[in-house]
Automatic annotation (TrEMBL):
Residues 171-245 form the DDE-1 domain. The lineage of its organism: Eukaryota, Metazoa, Ecdysozoa, Arthropoda, Chelicerata. This is Tigger transposable element-derived protein 2-like. One of its GO terms (molecular function) is nucleic acid binding. It comes from Galendromus occidentalis (western predatory mite).
């Protein structure tokens, strides 16, 4: 496990038999009971893999942290002295399945099939994407960008009318339910422009992650606005991105949006201003 390799009972049995041959223990068979006793002795158990990684990514972790530290120093040296908190923004995308179900349940020991009924099978695999916007004041600003998955890539006439009823949402759709370069341009020309116009902001900084769909800086060009783009280094978002620090943990508990209310509280402690979150995270 030190090398992050997957280990199973068969591996333990194979290694035990190899060692037994070295020690000339001819009667040792690495039985099921021996394997279970060995695991209890060394506090081992079968666990669900919570995250897949690569050896290269683990080796690169130090480089990721150094790059994140450089971005924080840039923030301290060039951004914070020259921009007021309402002029500094972070936006990010989060994807969800329409239905969230655990893949575990209490059931009868020994049963061959464990079934759980759901409303629709495609709801487990079909997704939607949301994109909130946060400023350095710790406030969620502007409409929430919601991109739904529609097989035909467009809304029918009834749905197209319904989605305009909610003033706090800007709703689009694609076949995949994911955002793309064109939708990022739409976000900037509509939601972000509304934010800047409403606050009379002509000069601002926008922090983005390294997702390829928003690497083109021309996507964020607006007449009369100076938008300075700051890109978080790949792999660093969980360390220093404000929206990653504040918001994702609330979604698994209640992934459904209340269409009559803002999906989150209108104020949050400022991630940018809290040095223990943004400045001293590493």
């Amino acid at each position: 496990r030190v090398n992050l390799l997957s280990v199973h009972d068969d591996d333990l049995r194979k290694w035990a038999l190899q060692k037994a041959r070295e020690l000339e223990l001819t009667r040792f068979s690495a039985s099921h009971n021996w394997i279970q006793n060995f695991k209890r002795c060394y506090r081992m158990t079968s666990r669900k893999v919570t995250k897949f990684t690569t050896h290269k990514r683990e080796r690169d972790q130090e480089e990721i942290e150094n790059a994140a530290a450089e971005l924080i120093l840039d923030f301290v040296d060039t951004v914070r002295p020259n921009y007021d908190p309402p002029q500094i923004f972070n936006t990010d995308q989060s994807g969800f399945n329409y239905l969230v179900y655990s893949n575990r349940t209490q059931s009868h020991t020994g049963e061959k099939k464990t079934l759980v009924a759901i409303q629709a099978m495609n709801a487990l695999t079909h997704s939607y994407t949301i994109q909130p916007t946060l400023n350095m004041d710790g406030r969620l600003v502007g409409r929430l960008f919601v991109n739904l998955q529609e097989p035909g890539g467009g809304f029918g006439p009834i749905v197209a009318t319904e989605v305009t009823r909610y003033p706090n949402l800007f709703v689009t759709c694609t076949k995949s339910g994911k955002l793309d370069k064109g939708l990022m341009r739409t976000w900037c020309q509509t939601i972000f422009k509304e934010i800047l116009d409403r606050t009379h902001t002509d000069d601002c900084v926008l922090y983005l992650d390294s997702w390829g769909g928003q690497k083109d800086s021309s996507l964020f060009e607006l007449d009369g606005k100076r938008i300075k783009i700051k890109t978080l280094p790949p792999g660093s978002t969980s360390l220093i991105q404000p929206l990653d620090q504040c918001f994702p943990r609330v979604f698994p508990n209640d992934p459904h949006l209340d269409s009559t209310k803002t999906p989150w509280p209108t104020t949050k402690p400022s991630t940018f201003e809290k040095e223990h979150v943004f400045g001293n995270t590493l």
